[in-house]
TrEMBL record:
GO terms for molecular function: thiosulfate-cyanide sulfurtransferase activity. It comes from Halorarum halophilum. Signal peptide: none annotated. Residues 118-140 are annotated as: Disordered. Keywords: Repeat, Transferase. This is Sulfurtransferase. It comes from the Archaea. InterPro entries: Rhodanese-like_dom, Rhodanese-like_dom_sf, Thiosulfate_sulfurtransferase, Thiosulphate_STrfase_CS. Residues 13-123, 153-257 form the Rhodanese domain. CDD domains: TST_Repeat_2 (cd01449). It holds the Pfam family Rhodanese.
Length: 259
């Protein structure tokens, strides 16, 4: 399966993958969820007391996935009900803790899109606990504050701010281009826009596959979705600033204002 998996494809393979619902627990239990999906709410794997940025820490991550019955070699599909941005964060976290990227997938769409044509349930599975063992990713996309500072003067790197235009105008990294992550999402399908439209949007901002692309937002949530989109499109030189503007401003990084 590709990084993004369609509802039709997932429905065919539900028995072969581990499905993770990252919405709040009350949504999972009260509204319903995909058959067989386990609940790992977004708030449970976000913490500034863990590792870099908002990563939860390797021990916390291991506990969450072990309790959910997920093994380190399982194929995982994650979803939310917000066009995939919270689920994308789950998948990027899994990648940063060493899960094989080829086995990490985002539902193309979200719960609302799935429920239009596919079965949902309120039955809660009781998975057999595992012993999930995270490890450091072999080729981590994470970059440090110092590496971002150096990138400001590197013409071969394009800095991408994935926040909304008004946030960008209030303050952004010098030379960064603005690309609201929602510009890559189709309002009707709640999933990705067609490939040619995605490529057009990116080309308009100078975000080319032959350049190193360094992504940031406020707390590394929104860049998670854009990161997965770029990987889906074949971008191979991606940098992920986990600290994002939260760390950048705390450490006195240079900022610009205006459009």
């Amino acid at each position: 399966m590709d990084t993004f998996v369609s509802a039709e494809r997932l429905a065919y393979r539900l028995d072969d993958v581990r499905v993770v619902d990252v919405r709040d627990g009350w949504e999972y239990e009260g509204i319903g969820h995909l058959p067989g999906a386990v609940s790992i709410p977004f708030a449970e794997f976000r913490s500034r007391d863990g590792d870099a940025g908002m990563l939860p820490g390797a021990d916390r991550w291991a506990d969450l996935l072990s309790s959910a019955g997920i093994d380190a070699d399982d194929e995982v599909v994650a979803y939310d009900d917000t066009h995939g941005v919270f689920a994308a964060r789950f998948l990027v976290t899994a990648e940063l803790y060493g899960h094989d990227t080829g086995k990490l997938h985002l539902l193309d769409g979200d719960y609302s899109a799935w429920s239009r044509e596919h079965e949902v349930t309120t039955d809660v599975p009781d998975p057999e606990p595992t012993e999930y063992e995270p490890h450091e990713s072999d080729e981590s996309p994470l970059v440090t504050f110092e590496e971002v500072e150096a990138a400001l003067a590197d013409d071969g790197i394009v800095l991408v701010d994935t926040r909304e235009a008004w946030e960008y105008e209030e303050g952004h990294l010098p030379g960064a281009v603005q690309l609201d992550w929602m510009e890559l999402v189709d309002a009707d399908s709640r999933g990705l826009k067609p490939r040619d439209e995605l490529q057009s949007v990116l080309a308009d901002r100078g975000i080319a596959p032959d350049r190193r692309v360094l992504l940031y937002c406020n707390t590394a949530r929104r860049i998670s979705h854009t990161y997965l989109v770029l990987r889906h499109l074949g971008y191979g030189n991606l940098a992920f600033y986990e600290g994002s503007l939260t760390e950048w401003e705390e450490r006195g990084g240079a900022m610009e204002t205006g459009a």
